[in-house]
TrEMBL record:
It comes from the Archaea. This is Uncharacterized protein.
Amino acid sequence: MLISSHYINAALHYTGRLRSDKDIKHNKLSGVLKREEYFDENSIKISELFRELEEMRPSQVYGTGKNGNTAKLAKSIYLQIKEFCGEILNV
């Protein structure tokens, strides 16, 4: 989840949609992306993917994730976010 938030913030910095001295914290990221539409038509998709990651966290860190299948799904979502942001960042 945190690496995904770093990719999203890096993409926002790179595109000039967020000041370079400011990051959006993980617990605010989904709502801000949806509200501000920083990624145009992709904002809602990225927002929902990130929200899914937040909800998968193990219960001891405020999520509902429970097992290895959750980890596989989380990795799949992370890779989608990484691919989207990687295209913006040219990496």
